[in-house]
Each structure stands twice: as structure tokens, then as C-alpha cells.
TrEMBL record:
<dbReference type="InterPro" id="IPR002577">
    <property type="entry name" value="HTH_HxlR"/>
</dbReference>
<dbReference type="Pfam" id="PF01638">
    <property type="entry name" value="HxlR"/>
</dbReference>
<dbReference type="InterPro" id="IPR036390">
    <property type="entry name" value="WH_DNA-bd_sf"/>
</dbReference>
<keyword id="KW-0238">DNA-binding</keyword>
<dbReference type="InterPro" id="IPR036388">
    <property type="entry name" value="WH-like_DNA-bd_sf"/>
</dbReference>
<dbReference type="GO" id="GO:0003677">
    <property type="term" value="F:DNA binding"/>
</dbReference>
<protein>
    <submittedName>
        <fullName>Transcriptional regulator, HxlR family</fullName>
    </submittedName>
</protein>
<keyword id="KW-0804">Transcription</keyword>
<keyword id="KW-0805">Transcription regulation</keyword>
<feature type="domain" description="HTH hxlR-type">
    <location>
        <begin position="16"/>
        <end position="114"/>
    </location>
</feature>
Length: 130
């Protein structure tokens, strides 16, 4: 894309859509919360506390932000104790192919750092092991 093409595209936009997306999902732990929901089916607050380095306060903040941005829905089940579950919205699920590509990028280009055996993987390799 030439610089003229880029300028023409940007004239149609209020702001860069890539930057805007990163403003929504780029805060620390947001993508990891989505990962755990998409890949592991996590939906309860305590399940998310298994995320590397997250604390309850930050988790609570991120879930509220994700709800505000239309990525997560919160469902409260009355009872003693009250049970709360979080679900990804269709909007959030639209990001699954993006997360898959991020995962694929790492396992193919940085296998020594992310794969236990140090060997490159495909998405099929990863998903068949679940």
C-alpha cells in the first residue's frame, strides 16, 4: 500500500481501527481472560485467578471493562451463595480467529519459548491435544 492509499483510507475514519481495538483488548490480562473463556471454558471468577500473575482486584476491573465494551455478559444466579457466570458475547467471539493467529504466530516463530518440545506447531496440533 502506498502512502497515498494509506492517507485515503485514514480520511474515511475517525481513528485507526487497529489502535481502537487495542484500546479495548490491549490492557494487561484482557486477552488472557478471553483465552481462558474460549479455550478452557472458564466462566467463574475463581477460575480466572489461574491466569499468570492476575490478582482479584485487577480481574474484577477487567471483567467490568469487558462487560462495558460488550465483550462479556454477566449472569447472576440467586441462591446461597450467589453464583455468577461470565460469557463471551458474539462480539468477543469474532476475535477468536485473531487470537488463533496470535497463538499460531508464536508456536511457529518462537517454538523454543512457547512449546515444551521446542518444535513448531499448527493449530490442529494444539487443539487435538485438548
Amino acid at each position: 500500500m502506498s502512502m497515498g492509499d494509506y492517507a485515503a483510507v485514514m480520511r474515511q475514519l475517525k481513528q485507526c481501527p487497529i489502535n481502537y481495538t487495542f484500546q479495548i483488548i490491549g490492557k494487561k490480562f484482557t486477552i488472557l481472560i478471553m483465552r481462558n473463556m474460549m479455550l478452557f471454558g472458564h466462566k467463574h471468577f475463581n477460575e480466572f485467578l489461574t491466569i499468570e500473575g492476575i490478582n482479584p482486584k485487577t480481574l474484577s476491573q477487567r471483567l467490568k471493562e469487558m462487560q462495558k465494551n460488550g465483550l462479556v455478559e454477566r449472569k447472576v444466579y440467586p441462591g446461597t451463595p450467589v453464583m455468577i457466570e461470565y460469557f463471551l458475547t458474539e462480539r468477543a467471539m469474532a476475535l477468536k480467529p485473531v487470537l488463533d493467529q496470535l497463538m499460531l504466530f508464536s508456536v511457529q516463530h518462537y517454538p523454543q519459548e512457547v512449546c515444551k518440545d521446542g518444535m513448531p506447531k499448527t493449530l490442529e496440533d494444539l487443539y487435538k491435544q485438548q
